[in-house]
Fold this sequence. Notes:
Shape: elongated
Strand order of the largest sheet: 1-2-4-3
Number of strands: 8
Largest sheet: 4 strands, antiparallel
Oligomer: single chain
Order of helices and strands: HHHHHEEHEEHHEEHEEHH
Amino acid sequence: MGRPKIEIPCDVLHELYQTQKTSPKVIAQRFGCHRQTIINRLRNCGIAVRSKGEAMAIAKVTFPRADFSGDAREKAYLIGLRIGDLTVTHINPEGQTIKVECASTRPEQITLIRELFQDYGRVVENGPYAQGRISIQCLLNLSFGFLLHKPNRIPEWILEADDTLLPFLAGYTDAEGHFGISGGKARFALASGDSEILKQAHVRLSKLGVICPPPYIWLKRGYVNSAGVTTHRDIWRLGVYRANSLSRLIKLLAPHLRHAKRRRDMEKVQRHLQEKGTGFS
């Protein structure tokens, strides 16, 4: 018998496509047919089909996008966070969209990414899925192309000044860091596979008065944790354990940390040091 023929009045198509600026794909979904069927029907009705450029322009109006601010500190923070937590892709090599995405079971993580990018473009959240995992996607313009590259070292322009280094380290800490208290002792740690970044961070933190041992291999490649997850590369760890150095680190990072849980944990460590009479006056 074949599929029943889809009859859509020309005046309805004109209203949806021309007046409401609805895309052929969405119209097709509404009427239960293929996108090409809608395009053929538009032509039969004498309605000019929009070019790819016109369609993209409409999409931009529907979901306005703003250029990146250009602020060097914000850029450094985002690069630090990107290395640790974000997946960034150019959706179409000839297109105008940079997609930033992440998935997490931590609501603070999703909130952070939403707040970072919601003023720049469209933010879409999906889930929760298994174990409460939520995915978030941010659709941005090409001014965010600097996030496409994932460096394995801290960029030189970031290393040159504390004004960019500290936001970078804060972004990286929001992604990979941990403040905690164990056995009555406060500590901070960065743990990741980015050995060169941790080595650079160690050198620069030492110059800033944060004294700590050099980073070391914490977990060997092939390690399987209690959840059955296997590490596919060596995991390095950089830890800060001295009270005075923890105090100094907190003062340096506090103005730049944005992850709500990271800040709560940092403040617990700060209170602990104050109660012990070490590190803070």
